[in-house]
Amino acid sequence: MMKNLLHKLFSVSMALLLLLSTISWTVEKHLCMGRVMDIALFDHAEDCGMEASLALLDETSTVKKHCCDNESFTLQGQDTLNLDIFHFDFSQQVFLISITTTYLGLFQESVDKNIVFDSYPPPILDEDLNILHQVFLI
Q1: Which of 25, 30, 92, 133 shows the greatest Cβ crowding within 10 Å of its Cβ?
Q2: How many Å from the N-terminal Cα to the C-terminal Cα in the chain?
Q3: Which residues of the chain have pLDDT under 70?
Q4: What's the structural domain count of the chain?
């Protein structure tokens, strides 16, 4: 029961790790007067409307310097997932296979069989060996 639960938890965590490492992450921030107004993940951050209000106030002149700024950074995901056991040299292959079989062997349940000899009588002795060798319990 516990083994199956741990196995499922490990499988789900490895799948999530693979998913998160292959996705490209883009985070965009909208700054207004040095303060973060909006943060967006995978999308464009919404502006605060300051530029639109400045454009309405001063329609004839172009606003050269404004207080808003957009920052974004992208973390590229992994594209190549072609890891193969044949890219390792022979000693690394032997090590990986031996560690794997040893680790998996830890989780095998040992089955102890009780052998019952009730239906078999003891052998018939010609002579009593304790008396023959004069071995007595005191």
Answers
A1: 30
A2: 52
A3: 51-55, 57-66, 81-86
A4: 1
* The pLDDT of residue 63: 47
The residue segments making up the domain with residue 60 are: 22-105
- The confidence score (pLDDT) of residue 85 equals 59
Contact yes or no for 32/45 (Cβ under 8 A): no
* 72 in any annotated domain: yes
Specify if 78 maps to a domain.
yes
Judge contact between 45 and 39, C-beta under 8 A: yes
State the amino acid at position 120 in one-letter form: Y
**Tokens describing residue 102:** 């040893």
Q: Which residue, 69, 65, 72, 73, is CA-closest to 35?
A: 69
Q: Is residue 73 part of a domain?
A: yes
CB neighbours of 72 closer than 8 A, spacing ≥ 6? 26, 27, 28, 29, 45
What does the DSSP 8-state code read for residue 12? H
